[in-house]
Amino acid sequence: MPPVPPGGYDLPLSPPVVQFPLPPQWVMIRSSQDWRHAGTFEKELSKACAARQFREQMPLRYRAIFKGEVLGVAFGHGLNLHDPKKQANRRLIYLFRNGDSTGCTIVSITNEDVRVLNDAQPAGATKR
């Protein structure tokens, strides 16, 4: 049995040591609504996502938070999107729920939907 380390076993937990720093993550949408009402459910893209043919390049690098549930975000013009079959619409934003599994669900929204959904507006923002 190894000897007890100095300070005993009640040492504070430290962050994981990694060779390279972890990538930053950005919250794009923060809403108090349910994610199911955010946009249009994409059945064919969800099937392609389950087959890993339509997915995020870096899962959860861009995030959408709906009632505490975190979804991944990718943009139709190609930012954070792996789409070898070119199925994406360039004008849409795609939300990935369980994007790294075969139970992947994709919801598409437009920029106008994001403006309506986003609850994280500054307090002094004026409405146009």
Identify the notable features of this structure and list them briefly.
8 strands, 128 residues, six-stranded mixed sheet, 12% helix, alpha+beta, 27% strand, plasmid
In short:
The protein is of the alpha+beta class and 128 residues long. It is built from two helices and eight strands. It has a six-stranded mixed β-sheet. A two-stranded antiparallel sheet has the order 3-6.
Could you please describe the fold and organization of this structure?
This protein has helices at 43-50, 111-117; strands spanning 26-31, 40-41, 55-56, 62-66, 69-75, 81-82, 93-97, 105-109. The strands form two sheets. Strands 1-4-5-7-8-2 form a six-stranded mixed sheet. It has one domain (26-117). It is elongated. A hairpin with a 2-residue loop joins β4 and β5 (69-75). With 128 residues, it is an alpha+beta fold. The chain contains two helices and eight strands; from the N terminus they run ββαββββββα. The termini are far apart. Keywords: Plasmid.
